[in-house]
Amino acid sequence: QVQLVESGGGLVQPGGSLRLSCAASGFTFSSYWMYWIRQAPGKGLEWVSGISLDGGRAYYGDSVKGRFTISRDNAKNTLYLEINSLKYEDTAVYYCVKAAPNVAGMTSFDYWGQGTQVTVSS
Fold this sequence. Notes:
Helix content is about 0%, strand content about 50%. The chain has strands at about 5, 10, 20-25, 35-40, 45-50, 60, 70-75, 80-85, 90-100, 110, 115-120.
């Protein structure tokens, strides 16, 4: 059974840093692109970052470019997100997401973790 379990969230001050982790199980982790998606209070889902099978390619949303770094350790079946220079608007629940098997060249998401809360406050 596919499981994605996020951890590492918490309350931090503006300008601070945090490292989120996602422990994956129940599938061949190294065979899938992985993603981070977040949802701020009262707002919709926002795509944050994605990473290729071996970690060689990574993409970021405009709001986090230069501040966030996605990585993965396939030997440990773990996805990471390093978040730096935190801003108030980074406050959100952060979800670890698995890419669904490819259909007609389109990317979709089939499993989500429970999320981990990141709160930026002074």
